[in-house]
Amino acid sequence: MPESTGGSDFRISLKLLWGTKERAPRGPKPTLTIEQIVEVAVALADAEGIENVSMRRVAERLGVGAMSLYRYVPSKAELLDLMLDSIHAEPPGIPAPPESESWRPRLAWHARESRALIQRHPWMLQVRMGQRPPLGPNILAVFNAYLGTVKDIGLTPAETLAVTELVGNYVQGATRRDVEAAQTERESGVSDETWWDERQEFWEQYFDVERFPHITLMWEQGGYDEPIDQFEFGLQRVLDGIEAMLAGR
């Protein structure tokens, strides 16, 4: 079931995201920090899925009572905002291409880094944001960097926004497929290779080569022998489309 970010009062999230890191709760001197709470929540989501993240579970991992967390973060909705913004501050896996490079390798780098972020934190795909992301500094910094890559390549402002949305949507869709495949393999304990091997009798007893000639042709011509990296193939085609649009002007 998708999770939603943002509580009933968006100002609370904004204060937590942009205000002083140490929110001053009433009562005794604070024994926790926002960073500690968020770090534990992210680790829990990575290990068990976002559906298993609750204020109680986070409190247990921190060794405190659940009610004590509410002095720092009012609800899970605000905690999700903080978690999402926090992971967008993670350092890149590979260095970014220099600014002197053309837009294409730099935009491809952003796409690959976005994919890697989702792969590290697949629960991101379970959080329902749409056009309403948490307005945190790290999320905005990533978006700003995306825009900076394509802002001066001959696009209108609206097209610049549309191109970043196009690439982002492609990354999410393509990565979701891989994340779900990995989850299926993990939960079933059966690899894709084993799954297909176990269904060999389907090809021998049920598959009709005359009824499905195109599938048969791909098989006979070795189409399945050396599969292409589907993410990279699709990403390059997206970039080809952008490049073709620019070349046509």
Automatic annotation (TrEMBL):
This protein's record includes keyword Transferase: no
Residue ranges of domain HTH tetR-type in the record: 31-91
Transcription listed as a keyword: yes
Stored PROSITE patterns: HTH_TETR_2
Superkingdom of origin organism: Bacteria
DNA-binding region, residue intervals: 54-73
Molecular function terms from GO: DNA-binding transcription factor activity; transcription cis-regulatory region binding
GO BP terms in the entry: negative regulation of DNA-templated transcription
Name of this protein: TetR family transcriptional regulator
Keywords: DNA-binding, Transcription, Transcription regulation
